[in-house]
Every structure is written in structure tokens, then in C-alpha cells.
Design brief:
By secondary structure, this protein is α/β, with parallel strands linked by helices. It has 21 helices and 10 strands.
């Protein structure tokens, strides 16, 4: 009997969101299942799979061969399974369609028909997704095979189509099942040397998953061969063009027995998206991330600031350490922490936010204590106060306004930084932002950004009231 929760993952692009929902809903009648959506690129979602933070996700054979197993040539499915087994993973249930990479240009330029033609046009501007630029089967191998001289710029896949339409770039990378190919009237360049392998969609899973969830695994096997390329394009279009949610599109496809999604109702407006059904859930998740991370940073940062203030030899070391932590890019930090902590989700997000909140708290605590007039310290010593009593009853109360300013800075920063939590399945307003990026949906982006901005303003307002109280209290202490 299935026990526990089946955790389904997905990457941060439309098709992966939809497939994740199809997998979750297919398994849901048999087991409790949740969808940890938009987990970033292949490296992050694979690390989550290997760490056991998710149990399976939809992946493509070409990506497994090149990015997971690090082959520079196509491999057979049997070889793929043998090598994956050594990693504790398996691949099965071919879903029925091939979603290969390709490059595309605007349809009004007829002078270039194939990838080989690009070599004779070095002035073309390439806007390629960051993952495509970095992966073995992406730009490095493609440029070498076709001898392409261009230097691409990194561009999020969700906004690439609009950038192409606005003539900010001339060439973008696409997935062959993208619905926007037809919408924007693009011309897909012929791969005359057959550089791109097949990218057949399958389920990549932990080897222990079928034993832990046998009924759910049996239900998922019924998906084999059921999703055609045209059906996948229609589902992508229902989300990207018609404005349906991933959940609704997956449910309609399953209800139709594998047909195309039903006609769409009118698209939801900005206000509808802001006050959507998930607003309270996302607000609760975002507040939890901010409050807990700042509280932990205060518990650690204030003592560190005190240490730096009273022990001059350690001062620069402490401040330099927290300063260096602040400079680590957020997504890089998350990618590093996933294999270290062996998890994704709330705990990992809290660790990352805690790290970023340390610097203003440590720095302001140290500065606030150092600014206390020496005469007040001497008066405390003359009264016979111990160092501990002086710290608790003189130093910290007098430094409180400056310390609170640091906590305020950390809290406001954390409100914004907490949006990265969506990349590791920890929720918050970042879920709307990542979906908006994936769909190039400005309303969805604003539906995540506006509540975050409002929360940041409220946080700043509350801390300013507390700071005023602390300043009045400090004045009484000094007199």
C-alpha cells in the first residue's frame, strides 16, 4: 500500500509545469501527491531528485544523456538505464512525444533557412537561454559543429519570443513543442547535420519510488505513449496563449482521455491574479520565511556584532566573513546547499535567507556599541556593574536604535530575497514571479511583485515605529 507523500518535481518552463501536474493528478487518486514546481534548471531539479526531496519528474532522453550522464553522443535506452541505476535512478514511461531543441528566427527573414547558414552572418544577435548556453548538447557543441562565430547573450526562455519580435535579438533557442512558434510566425532553422538528438519525454525517478508507491506507479504507467506532439503543443498554447492554469490544463487533458484542452474562458486580469485563491497561502509562506530567517539572523548576528565590537582583533574577520557571504549569488548558494543539506524546500530557503540577513545585523550591532560614549561606560563601571550587566543594561539598550535599523534593513531585504524560495519549492510570492517569467506573463509577474512590495513597505513602516520608541527610550537612558 502507498504511504507517505509522492513528491513530483518540475523545471521552470511551461511544458515541465504541465507535465508535473499531469503526473501529480494521475497519481493523486492512489496516494497523497504534491507538485514542487519551477525548481530551476536541470542541475537543481536533479540534485533535488538525488537528495530525495522529490521522487520523480518528467525529463527528456537527450538531456539525461548529456546533462545527467555527461555523454557527448546519443546513448541507447538500455545503456542509459544501466548508468542511471548506479546513481539510484531509473527512467521509464515514454510519454509519447519528442521535444527537441531548435533555433528559430522571425518569419520575415527568408535569407537563412538552416543552422549552417548562420555561419555566414556573424552580425546576427543570438539570445539564448542560460541553460542552453551552458549545457553540453547546447551552444558549445552547436557552435563547434556548425562553426558559428557569434557570441550569444543569456536570455530567459520566457521572454525570448518577445525579445525576438521586438528585434532586440535575431536568433533564439526553442523547444519544438512551444506553442509560440506558430503564434509569432517563426521559422525553425533546419538542423542539416542532425546535431540535436531526440528528446523523448519520459519519467526520471528514484529507484525506490515504485516500491514505495506501487499503486501510484501502476497508475503512472498508463500515461505511456498517450501524449502526442500536437496534444502537447495544444496544452502549452492553452497556458501561454489562452491564460489557463497548469492545473486546469492537466485536469482537462486527463478528463478528455488524451484529447486537446477545451476552449478557454476570458483571461484573468491583474486584479484577479493578485487576489487569487493562492494569495493567503503564498502570503503565509512568505511571512514564515521572512520572520524565521530574520529571527535566526538576530540570534546569531547580534552576538557576533557584540564580539566584533569588544574584541578588536576579531572585528575585521567577522565583518569580512559575513560580507563575503552576502556576495554569493542567491541561485548559486541554493545550488551549493542542495547537495550539502540533502533537501529542498522551506529549510533550505531559511538557511539561504539567514545568510543574507546576517551582514546588516552584525554590522549595525558592532557600530551601535562602538558609538556609545566612553563616559557612559566609565559611569557604569563606577557603579560597580559587571561586564555582563553593563552589556545588558547599558550597551545594548543604548545601541538598540542602530541595531533595529540593521534588523529593519535585513527584514526588508529578506522580503525581496525570499522570492528565490520558489526555485526550490519553498513557496512564497516567488511562485507567481517564476510562473510569470516562464510564460512571459506581465500580469502574473506583477501579481507576485506587488504583494511583495506591499509587504516590504509594511515591514519598513512597522520597524520605523519600533525605532521611534527605541530612540525615545535611549534618550531617557542617556539622561
Amino acid at each position: 500500500m502507498d504511504t507517505g507523500t509522492l513528491k513530483v518535481g518540475s523545471k521552470r518552463f511551461t511544458e515541465s509545469y504541465i507535465l508535473g501536474e499531469i503526473v501529480r493528478q494521475s497519481a493523486a487518486p492512489q496516494v497523497k501527491a504534491e507538485h514542487r514546481q519551477g525548481l530551476g534548471n536541470t542541475a537543481i531539479v536533479l540534485a533535488a531528485l538525488q537528495a530525495g526531496s522529490i521522487d520523480l519528474y518528467a525529463e527528456y532522453t537527450g538531456t539525461i544523456a548529456s546533462e545527467v550522464l555527461k555523454h557527448d553522443k546519443p546513448v541507447t535506452l538500455e545503456q542509459m538505464r544501466r548508468e542511471l541505476a548506479a546513481l539510484g535512478l531509473g527512467v521509464a514511461v515514454p510519454l509519447g512525444f519528442n521535444n527537441t531543441y531548435a533555433l528559430a528566427m522571425r518569419g520575415d527573414d527568408k535569407s537563412i533557412a538552416s543552422l549552417a547558414d548562420l555561419a555566414t552572418h556573424p552580425a546576427l544577435k543570438f539570445g539564448l537561454s542560460h541553460e542552453f548556453i551552458g549545457r553540453v548538447d547546447g551552444w558549445p557543441g552547436l557552435a563547434a559543429r556548425y562553426k558559428l562565430p557569434q557570441r550569444p547573450r543569456g536570455l530567459d526562455h520566457g521572454i525570448a519570443y518577445e525579445a525576438l519580435a521586438q528585434r532586440q535579438v535575431d536568433v533564439i533557442d526553442i523547444y519544438s513543442t512551444d506553442a509560440k512558434i506558430r503564434q509569432y510566425g517563426l521559422r525553425v532553422l533546419a538542423d542539416t547535420q542532425q546535431y540535436f538528438p531526440r528528446y523523448d519525454a519520459m519519467l526520471l525517478y528514484r529507484l525506490d519510488m515504485p516500491k514505495r508507491f506501487p499503486a501510484a506507479w501502476q497508475a503512472l504507467q498508463k500515461l505511456e505513449g498517450r501524449i502526442s506532439e500536437s496534444a502537447m503543443i495544444s496544452m502549452n498554447a492553452a497556458v501561454e496563449i489562452d491564460g489557463k492554469s497548469f492545473t486546469v490544463v492537466a485536469r482537462e487533458w486527463l478528463a478528455s482521455g488524451g484529447g486537446k484542452p477545451a476552449a478557454s474562458d476570458a483571461r484573468a486580469g491583474l486584479l484577479d491574479k493578485i487576489i487569487g485563491d493562492d494569495l493567503w497561502t503564498l502570503t503565509r509562506q512568505h511571512l514564515t520565511l521572512v520572520l524565521l530567517s530574520v529571527a535566526l539572523a538576530c540570534l546569531v548576528g547580534v552576538p557576533l556584532g557584540v564580539l566584533a565590537a569588544f574584541y578588536a582583533p576579531l572585528r575585521q574577520t567577522v565583518l569580512a566573513l559575513v560580507g563575503v557571504l552576502q556576495t554569493v549569488p542567491s541561485l548559486a548558494l541554493l545550488a551549493i546547499l542542495i547537495p550539502v543539506l540533502g533537501m529542498i524546500g522551506m529549510v533550505l530557503a531559511l538557511v539561504a535567507l539567514f545568510v543574507y540577513a546576517l551582514l546588516p545585523i552584525v554590522r549595525n550591532t558592532c557600530t551601535g556599541i562602538l558609538q556609545i560614549p566612553p563616559g557612559l561606560r566609565m559611569a557604569a563601571l563606577a557603579l560597580g556593574l559587571t561586564r555582563r550587566d553593563r552589556l545588558l543594561h547599558v550597551d545594548l539598550p543604548l545601541a538598540l536604535p542602530v541595531i533595529l535599523a540593521g534588523v529593519k534593513t535585513a527584514a526588508v531585504m529578506s522580503v525581496g530575497t525570499a522570492t528565490i524560495a520558489a526555485f526550490i519549492g519553498a513557496g512564497g510570492y516567488g511562485e507567481r514571479i517564476t510562473i510569470g517569467l516562464a510564460l512571459n506573463d506581465n500580469d502574473m509577474l506583477l501579481a507576485g511583485a506587488i504583494p511583495a512590495a506591499v509587504l516590504a513597505l509594511l515591514t519598513q513602516g512597522i520597524f520605523e515605529l519600533v525605532e521611534r520608541w527605541a530612540v525615545r527610550r535611549e534618550g531617557k537612558l542617556r539622561t
